[in-house]
Amino acid sequence: MSAGGRGHLGPGPDNGRIVRRRGTSGGKVSSASSSSSSDWPARLSSASGGGRWSSVLLLPAVVYVAAVYRLAFLAGERSSSSWPRPSSPSSLLAASASERKNLFDVAARADEGERERGRGRGRGGRRGAVVAKTHGALAIPRGAIASSVNKLLRVDGGGGGGGDAAERYPYPYATAPVSVDHDFSSYVPPGGYRFVEYRDGDAPYLITPAASHLSDESARSRRVHVSNAMRHVWENYRGGLVYGKDEMRPLSGTGSDTWGGMGTTLIDSLDTLWLMGLKDEFWEGRNFIRDRLRFDHVGYVSFFETSIRNLGGLLSAYDLSGDNAFLEKADDLAKRLSRAYDTPFGMPHGYVDLGTGQSNNRADYILAEVGTQQVEYRYLARATGKPEYADMSMRAFDVLRALQPSDGLLFELIKDGDGGGGGGGGGGGGGWLSWLFKGSGNDKPVFANGKVSFGAMGDSAYEYMLKVWIQGGRKEDAYRRMWDKAVTGMHEQLLRKSSLTGLTYISNRIDGRLEHKMDHLVCFLGGSLALSAYTDPLGLDSPRARRSLRTARALAYTCYQMYARTKTGLAPEYVRFEGENDMVVPRDSPYYILRPEAVEAFYYLSSLTGDPIYREWGWEIFQSIEKFCKTKYGYGSPRDVDKPGSVEDRMESFFLAETLKYLYLLFDPDSEIDILNKHVFNTEAHPLTIFKD
């Protein structure tokens, strides 16, 4: 849809009701973004409208009275006069933040004490108690009080989908819009072990139209700050001597041609500029690319990185703007890259010289590199009328289809073959494998190691199983079956829960044994699983879709905890789950390189389920980025997420292409992007239009 909104996003899997509708009002920058938050309680009342919502607005008074009398009884020796009271008993919204916090903290402790007396501490102890608290937000405790409130409300409407509880509670984490001069320097990460009601993949709250409206209003004020972050980088990138360089160093302000001198940061950022409304900067970039960018001088480059960053960025810029200058450059680049496909079985070499056309592998083929160019090359084939681009890329993908074992889990390294004539390493191609490689003698591709991972070296190959199917209009069912088979194998063999706090994670498998390690990269899976649930041919109500959606939400919570449990509120490169030491940050992975995968998952889940919690988590992460990563010229990478203060003098182009883009879209209820019906993102967050025929 256009900027007016996306319309409804489908029924919830619990009861078939519409989950939510995106707001259809509001321009690209709402007046809410510049208003003070002091009038927010008044806007809360007006946003709810009349009718049945008027009764909801009387709820705080009921909660207050019930809390006072019930908790006075539980406390015994406390007198009723000792309870903290808001200045206006008619509304908890009129209370100060400290008064609300005191009231609900006392209520939560008393309610938790009653539960523990009744049935013991249970798994997780105090951390396992479901208490609705949040930094700077109105929160109503769950438990007996919230249960009584729920019975009083009788609110109709969707709840975000997928919850299994008989009752849902009103969404308690509504937050006010932020001002345009919001001070990030004073931000203190609120810490982990919160929002535990989301831990197991539940959708615990009713997401009413009023809650959605308020979340959208708050989001619009936040997207201004994400746009400002992009402006901060771009003013320094284009204002110095680094414009057109592959990367800009955020501490020194100097440039580097890390990727061969192809203007990677510029190309990777084009669609982010467009979606943020920075059109002057976008067209300036077009002029540079059209008039000055050349590829014939570039030597060896990574086929994978150049395809997803440079080729994907050019194609997305063309898709959004319709300007042929981008398509012409993409065609030129792809011609040079396509020499990498000149291999025995059509799997692309890892490196190719854009000037001479020579290519080599340096080692074995990597799963993610073989399976992560199809979305780009298929789009280019359509746009240029040159089907050979699609044919080359899909032949490589069909190698993976032929090799996919019965459990769906592909090993991360592949080689051309050893003359043995089999699929190797557990491959299950059978007759299809023999047909695909007929005429090749006994040689067939084989797996070269025994490691399965949804993290580094494997991740995006699984992602593209789903996205190739979506890009083709959900008609090429063989690729959807590849995805479904892999997801089944993941659930049956790799999915685990930590022993201490019950966090869901995806382990690796090495030669049949599990490695209880999860890369930050794996967080992409939360978004892909949610997307697969909402596009499942069996329907969102099917057991398969419900399982995928529950795992998506549980995994997103774990990824959020990877951030929330550190001193900076930023995540390490990977974590381990070791016995009673829940979520350990190893000594060799304490750094954060501005990765996007967690906020990517939050964006998908927010867009599809309508649950505002993902915006709250994303806002915490963005505030930590502003506090601990921002430098004079851009954003640096913290060396240790538990030791604030020191950052590396490097800023990857994916910070602008993915991290800031997903954060902006997370806070942009008016976006032109439609992930269900119109667009598919490549693995570098470049949106491309889905094929219509």
UniProtKB/TrEMBL annotation:
The keyword RNA-binding does not apply. Residues 1-44, 109-128 are annotated as: Disordered. The active site is at E305, D459, E573, E597. Its EC number is 3.2.1.-. Keywords: Calcium, Disulfide bond, Glycosidase, Hydrolase, Metal-binding. Ca(2+) binds at T683. Transmembrane segments: none annotated. Residues 27-44 have a biased composition (Low complexity). Its cofactor is Ca(2+). It is an enzyme of class 3 (hydrolase). GO terms for molecular function: hydrolase activity, acting on glycosyl bonds. InterPro entries: 6hp_glycosidase-like_sf, Glyco_hydro_47, Glycosyl_Hydrolase_47, Seven-hairpin_glycosidases. Disulfide bonds join C523-C559. Residues 109-119 have a biased composition (Basic and acidic residues). PANTHER family: MANNOSYL-OLIGOSACCHARIDE ALPHA-1,2-MANNOSIDASE IA-RELATED, MANNOSYL-OLIGOSACCHARIDE ALPHA-1,2-MANNOSIDASE-RELATED. This is alpha-1,2-Mannosidase.
